[in-house]
Amino acid sequence: MKIYGLTKTTLLDYPGRTACTVFAGNCNFRCIYCHNFELVTNPERFDRKDEEEIFAFLEKRKKILQGVCITGGEPTLDPDLKDFMIRIKKFGLPVKLDTNGYMPGVLAELIDEGLPDMIAMDIKTDRKRYPKLAGVPGLDTKRLEKSVKLIMESGIDYEFRSTVIKDYYDDEAAHDIGKWLSGAEKMFLQGFEESENVPEKGLKPCTKEEMERFRDILSGYIKEVNLRGID
Question: Does residue 46 carry a pLDDT above 90?
Answer without folding.
Answer: no
